[in-house]
Amino acid sequence: MTYEPIWGSIIAWYLFLAGLGAGAFATSAFLSWRHPEAVTMRKIGHLIAPIAVGIGLVLLMVDAEAGFANPQRFFLLLGNFGSVMSWGVVFLSVFMVVALAALVLDFLKRPVPGWLENAGAVLALCVAVYTGALLGVCQTFPLWNNALLPILFLVSALSTGAASVLATSIIRHGEEFNRVGVLKKFHFCLPIIELLLVMSLLFITQSNSEAGWASVMALVSGKYALAFWLGLVFVGLVGPTILEVWLLFFSAKEFEESRLAHWLSFLSDAGVMVGGFLLRYLIVVAALPLPVAVPLF
Amino acid sequence: MSESTITRRGFLKQGAVAAAAAGTVGGLISYDAWSKAYAAADSQQEVKKVHSLCNSCSSKCGFTAHVKNGRVGTMTGDDEHPYCEGTLCARGYGYAAVAYSEDRLTHPLKRIGEGEFEAISWDDALTEIGDKIKAIVAQDGPEALALIMDPRPSGSYYTKRFMAALGSPNTYTHGVACNLAKTSGMTQALGAGDFTSDVANSKMVIFIGRSYADGLRPGSLHSLQKGYQNGSHIVMIDPRMNNSCTYATEWIPIRPATDLALILAMANVLVAEDLYDHDYVDNYTVGFEDWASRLPEYTPEWAEEKTGIPADTIVRLAREMAAAAPQASIEQGWRAATGCSHQNSGETARAICLFNTLLGCWGVEGGAYFPPSVSVGKLEDPRFAAPPKVEAKIAGSKEYPLAVGSMGVATHAVQQAGEGNIKGLIFYQSNCVGGYSNPAQLAEWTKAADLSVAIDVQMTETCKACQYVLPDTSYLERLEVPEFVGGKIPVVALRDRVLEKIHPETRPVDEIFTGLAKACGVGQYFDFTVDELADAQLKTVGLSLAQLQEEGIHAFSEKAWKPQLKTEWKTKSGKVEFTSEACEKAGFTPSPTWVEPLVMPKEGQFRLVGGKQTIHTHTQTANIAPLMEISKQYSLERPWLNAGVAKQMGIEDGDEIEISSEMFTGRTRVKVTERIEPTSLYLPSHYGRMIPEQHVSYNVGLSQMDFVPFHIEPGYGGTMAQEVIVTIKKVGA
Amino acid sequence: MTRYGMLIDTTNCIGCFACRTACQRQNGLAANIDYIRYEDRETGTFPNVGFEVIPIQCMHCEDAPCVSVCPTGASYIDETGTVRVDEQKCIGCKYCMAACPYLVRVHNPETGAVEKCKFCAAESFEGRGETCSCVEACVTGCRIFGDLDDPDSDLNKAIAERNALPIAGDRTKAKIFYVR
């Protein structure tokens, strides 16, 4: 019997969008701290956060078919605080409230108080970590059941969130984009950290069990190899890193601030987001279960 | 299909009209909408328990169905039925889904083009078929008609009576593709076509190509399990390590089609080493000297060459059997080695009987016995009087003189249709075309007949080849004539109406043949209902229909088998016959000697072997969703290839391979296993159904029969279903 | 107290699937919904071969990961120790399926909810006596159902006599015991 993944691309989209939205809000909070002048970009982050998380939640509900058909059952979601998912619902709900509040204040052209920004940032981190912990507590899947996964998803969330804010700002606010150097340098580091985390995850997982080994092999040389190497590693992690290294450290300042450079940066951010989705997708579908009675592989 | 709406009497009365109307499109409601509305309308009903008989294979085990909302829920096997002894097999539970299958035939159909049918009324169907039958009888005589069926209680009664009323002897069973050669070979030696090894009480039993755990009859499996757990030495001789090996002390792989060599060599050891039962042979047999004089050439070393079984193993088995005798026997086998598979199947069956005779095991506890049974007495009511006796012999009896007349050589009849000698073919619950031998060939011959009629519950290869298709009710929707079953305690059991008729234009077998008889002008022999017939039959054994419906199964404890050395035989001599004049006339030696298989695989070739899986019965269950879903989920349609051979060929488990015989080439994924000997490729016989009207089974795996050339075993008439060589190659290599 | 459990003797299992189809009848399941799944393996090389079939279903764990991850409380353990799903509460998030180490929970596409073996006896078995359809159907009598809290139950005796153990160690305190 062949094993069919329990979750598919809908849940991957959900995990990706929840992380991206959280990362976008965290990016806004970061901007208000280090680049208070980048007002538009901060607002972009506030706008992206609830939209991305909202779409993610809708996808989650669509995937939960029995709940989708009987929406009143979603009110039961706080029924078990032993469940990571119930905690996730709490984080997501409160985060959504904060993110929407920030958005409303932005719309009303009123300042977003620092405490709200900070509270949102903390919640954003919780949401991002939750998306990893959700999978991480499933003992059946060695690829998930480890402490690296929440950290990896957190880093990816921050990376994709920042990328979404940066890419959007490039489209209409090139001037402001040029002024957020600290954010860009932080953002540049994230794919490198992510790459190290992915490598660590795979190294450790392949060594801990046959199922872990098979999961890793499915990624690096099996049926997901193309998506893994070309999509996640090259487009999502190595490509953006090369582009950003060149733009940030080796290109002339005038070029770095040119429109062409902006669009190259846009390309890099788009790559980061593609990689962010593929990371969730590949982790979700490539995980193979520990054997029950007979080795499965 | 037809314009008529699928409804159920009483259904619309129940206030569920609105629910049904929701699913109504242009006067037709979907079956799904109907069944949902029907269930909702009846949801207040209590659970009703009904006794009946399964139809998923020929065993027809007794069960109790729990019926709620007009649907069958829980099913339990009946304890008193000797074939199931309280437990059903997977098919028993799964096959009940046939009643609700969306692929049921719901109206009489008439073929209007290749693979195309239109619905016609029963009146038109019966009139047209009746007119054609009358014309054939008038022009070519009743011998130009043939009817082929897979025996079921009412089916057996009504088909034979119908054909007899027309004056035709040509009623055939599926035996030709099942156990014909076995029954016929045994009849030559014993004057009886079946025996049962008392495995439960045995000290040793050798099974040859038969697996109680795969062609599963629960009662037989219980007996095997008991025997094994009691310490009996159970030997499985099979090219495949079948699932019965759970209860075997050893599995001895054999090259298929060479079982006769093994038996001859073991018999040789018994005689040469003087290990046989002199007393039994001297007193209750004839012709032993003839066999004894022929055996010496069949040395264990010679048999090793043929079978691949080491000579010392053969010697050991023979000595162990002698030591265990008379609580020892070779089990009779069924379809594989002895039934219909090889050019030597009939002679293998005969040799098994004679080997067992050397052990003196007949009738002895732990040996092999003949289960007692009870039969219907004479019916006094003149309405049930038999039609005039048909003097002519069943067609094929001249060409295949050893084939027992109660089964006949069905494929011969179809071949004769192709040659213009048989003009009319009727099939009842028989997928002859798809399952007996080469389907393309059988379809061509069937289509050549002036008249061809198939009666079934779903569209089959046979239906597709016929001019008329008549829709049967499912087995859950009809009462049948009582079924008398032999066993250690013989019983009579009843197939009863578990469900009301689901599709109004379907008819039970008794009504169909009564209708056909009337249309053919012989209705006077069918002037009764099946209820009246069943009641009358039961009265002859001191029961009534109402009583048996209540009781489900009635056991005749007073007729229980009592172990006793069997000394009287229904042969001409009244003894076991080592020599047979009929066999000699048919071209064999008077006592069994080696008969070469028709084909043997050379290097790089394989013999394609078939065989049942526990969840299927030939092609009949392929379209049953709860069963086919298992096949799909666990990839059971894959052919088995020996692991060592696969490695040499660079084939891995799950690879796609191409299988070719002289008849057919097809592709499928392969199961690489240590559980099969190197010269065999095992293709489960249920798959490769290519009938688009069968939505569940369509295009899953390959059909064994597509690879098999049409041929008939000399003398005995079996289809030689495993006399076929195939080559394989990895796709893309 | 009643604490239902089961023993499955795989040395007697012929892999006939009767438990699966009987279960589907008793529970009114669609053809593609299975509460019982099977793992099998071969050992040795031709001609010295062995094989084993292991039916696997909800183990009714005392430390049930499915219950601890279920966000709505739809998965719970009832008073007989049977792990149950309240279909009225299930949203179909499939988190329990991901958490179950035995991979025996199935998503029903018709209801969207997740289902699994519920020990027929704890529900309302329609067959003969207080047992489960798989136990009653097993052609070779592989299965024994009973009360683990009753020291005299056939189940407890058989577990002790045959040294039956949970299938994958005791990390979840499974209540189905296997003889292999």
Which terms would index this structure?
heterotrimer, A: 297 residues, mainly alpha, Formate dehydrogenase/DMSO reductase fold, 12 helices, C: 180 residues, alpha+beta, Alpha-Beta Plaits, two-stranded antiparallel ribbon, 18% helix, 26% strand, globular
Describe this structure in words.
- The complex is a heterotrimer of chains A (297), B (733) and C (180).
- Chain A has 297 residues and is mainly α.
- Chain A has twelve helices and no strands.
- The longest helix of chain A has 28 residues, at 181-208.
- Chain A is globular, with a radius of gyration of 20 Å.
- Chain B is α/β, with parallel strands linked by helices.
- Chain B folds into four domains: 1-44, no CATH class; 104-174 and 382-472 and 507-527, Rossmann fold, CATH 3.40.50; 195-369 and 564-585, Dimethylsulfoxide Reductase, domain 2, CATH 3.40.228.10; 606-730, Barwin-like endoglucanases, CATH 2.40.40.
- In chain B, helix 4 packs across helix 19 (509-519) and helix 15 packs across helix 17 (439-448).
- Chain B is globular and about 70 Å long.
- In chain C, 18% of the residues lie in helices and 26% in strands.
- A three-stranded mixed sheet of chain C has the order 8-1-10. A two-stranded antiparallel sheet of chain C has the order 2-3.
- Chains in contact: A-C, B-C.
Strand and helix map with partners:
The complex is a heterotrimer of chains A (297), B (733) and C (180).
Chain A: H1 9-34, H2 39-63, H3 65-69, H4 84-107, H5 114-136, H6 148-172, H7 174-178, H8 181-208, H9 210-220, H10 225-250, H11 253-256, H12 259-286
Helix pairs in contact in A: 1-2, 1-5, 1-6, 1-12, 2-4, 2-6, 4-5, 5-6, 6-8, 6-12, 8-9, 8-10, 9-10, 10-12
Chain B: H1 17-22, E1 24-25, E2 28-29, H2 31-41, E3 48-53, E4 62-68, E5 71-77, H3 90-95, E6 109-113, E7 116-119, H4 122-140, E8 145-149, H5 153-166, E9 171-173, H6 180-190, E10 196-197, E11 204-208, H7 218-229, E12 233-237, E13 250-252, H8 259-272, H9 278-284, E14 285-286, H10 288-294, H11 300-307, H12 311-324, E15 328-330, H13 336-340, H14 345-359, E16 368-369, H15 410-418, E17 424-428, H16 432-435, H17 439-448, E18 451-456, H18 461-465, E19 468-471, E20 483-485, E21 491-493, H19 509-519, H20 530-539, H21 545-551, E22 553-555, E23 576-577, H22 581-585, E24 606-609, H23 625-633, E25 640-642, H24 643-649, E26 656-660, E27 665-669, E28 671-673, E29 680-682, H25 704-707, E30 725-730
Parallel strand pairs in B: 8-9, 8-17, 11-12, 11-15, 12-13, 14-23, 17-18, 18-19, 24-29, 25-28
Antiparallel strand pairs in B: 1-2, 3-4, 4-5, 6-7, 6-19, 10-16, 20-21, 21-22, 24-30, 26-27, 26-30
Chain C: E1 4-9, H1 18-26, E2 37-45, E3 48-56, H2 65-69, E4 75-77, E5 83-85, H3 95-99, E6 106-107, E7 114-115, H4 133-137, E8 143-147, H5 154-162, E9 167-170, E10 176-179
Parallel strand pairs in C: 1-10
Antiparallel strand pairs in C: 1-8, 2-3, 4-5, 6-7
